[in-house]
Amino acid sequence: MVAILIFFFTHWFLSLFFHTFFLHRYASHQMYTTSKRTERVFYLLTWLTQGSSFLNPRAYAVMHRMHHVHSDTEQDPHSPHFFKDVMGMMVHTKNIYHAFLSGEKMPDPQFTKDYLPTWPKLDKIADSMTVRVLFTLAYTSFYIYFAPPNYWLFLLLPIHFLMGPVQGAIVNWCGHKYGYANYKNGDHSKNSEPFGLLLLGELFQNNHHKQGTNPNFARKWFELDPTFQVMKVLHLLRIIRLKPVAINDNVTAPGITVQHSHGKSHSHHATARSREVTHSN
Ligand SMILES: [Zn+2]
Ligand SMILES: [Zn+2]
Prior knowledge:
The chain has helices at 2-28, 36-50, 57-69, 86-102, 120-126, 129-146, 157-161, 163-174, 205-210, 226-236, 274-278; strands spanning 32-33, 241-242, 256-259, 265-268.
């Protein structure tokens, strides 16, 4: 029982850490820079920790950039406000993800013009069905060895198999539906405490949508973003270099065309903070 719980939480937090630290904060938002070699180490660790549910960093990043620009509008790949349940939202998200991955659908160029980490050789291995199945067999073997006589623990296995999407579903659903808001972002993003800690800062969606390039998702004294604390240490160790944060909304990152909810679109230099700049109404 103890071994299973340790395995479960280790897998949960390691996979989540690379989800937020590498896929979200690096691949999507470029909150820090690092050497090519270190990038590859992070890429590899993201695969090893996500295992059977590895999410391709490029496809993830493109979809996530879409999410920020179109947050809670119909073009948002995963707004909970357009689906009656979380399953419907995740199936829709999965379809867009696979269309980008297979090349069946080409993303709008505004979402690919900023840097995107790729590693085609590793992607090929990580995305192969054989490798994904081998990961699920490894998780299952661990359970077969350590779970009996507590057979109910096997109910946790599907979470291991789908770790990345499960965590994504919680963040996308709860983070845009439940909780409090520090800012008016023109969308439904929320800070869903007290779960921020369990999701390593990812559930401060309201703060994050206010300032998409700020590596610290916490704002108030009672909020804590554990991933940012780790990033500060990695910065001090010079493993990564955090970019100076543009606090002023007009100081911006490389351009993205922003689609406003009132239909007009124009180009300005912001990846994610765009909404509150334009939605003061
Ligand atoms: Zn969001
Ligand atoms: Zn984001």
